[in-house]
Amino acid sequence: MRNDIESIFFTEDAIAEKVAALGAQISKDFAGMDPIFVGVLKGCFVFMADLMRSVTIPCSVDFMAVSSYRGTTSTGAVEIHKDLSQNIEGRHIIMVEDILDSGMTLSYLQNYLANRNPASITIATLMDKPSRRKAPVYARYSCFEVPDAFVVGYGLDYNEKYRNLPYIGVLKPEIYMAEE
Ligand code: IMP
Ligand code: MG
């Protein structure tokens, strides 16, 4: 698999350092607030697992699984495959994303969850591609800013592969061309 990677953007060590710092920051900012971390599957699962273990305050975890509606991407509507398993009214929500790209998914989910009257909704993303933003989404926490490139590893996939790479990198162009 390493042979399919053109270059490594973030090493295992660099990611571990950023994620630990984020966990410490969130523990400070949300002390006494018992937040619920809401992961957006599947891409978030590796980040979420590491982040949770660096959070030192009481908290809980939940997941949503979504996909974009085909043909209606301009509206940003997403299909909910798995919804939350707990009531979030009056609770502090921290949405955990692998990468914030157009922002359409999170913008939709933020509104969707806001209807349930949580105390607050905060976004924590591993990576942010601000140059691609279409919807107005603000990530209070972001570990890495990335250029407009398609990255894989550490939970992120290309056609469901490469999620298990421990680092984040970009694929060689011939990998995409072979698929087309
Ligand atoms: P958006 O912000 O609604 O455009 O979509 C964000 C989602 O698209 C992320 O949660 C990822 O699942 C996926 N995505 C966006 N950019 C990348 C990338 O570079 N690599 C892998 N998945 C990506
Ligand atoms: Mg995702």
What report would you give on this structure?
It is a single chain. This protein has 180 residues and is an alpha/beta fold. 25% of the residues lie in helices and 31% in strands. Helix 2 links the parallel strand 2 (36-41) and strand 3. It is globular, with a radius of gyration of 16 Å. The model has no long low-confidence stretch (mean pLDDT 93). Bound molecules: inosinic acid and magnesium ion. Residues 40, 43, 97-98 line the site of magnesium ion.
- Give the integer mean of the pLDDT values: 93
Shape: globular
Estimate the strand proportion.
25-35%
Structure classification:
alpha/beta
The number of helices is: 4
What's the β-strand tally?
9
Oligomer: single chain
Q: What is the first-to-last residue Cα distance? A: 19 Å
Computed over alpha carbons, the radius of gyration is 16 Å
> Bound compounds, please?
inosinic acid, magnesium ion
The largest sheet is:
6 strands, mixed
The string of secondary-structure elements, in order, is EHEHEEEHEEEEH
As residue ranges, the low-confidence spans are none
Question: Major sheet: order of its strands?
Answer: 4-3-2-5-6-7
Helical coverage, percent range: 25-40%
Summarize the structure.
With 180 residues, the chain is an alpha/beta fold. Helix content is 25%, strand content 31%. The site of magnesium ion has 4 residues, from strand 5.
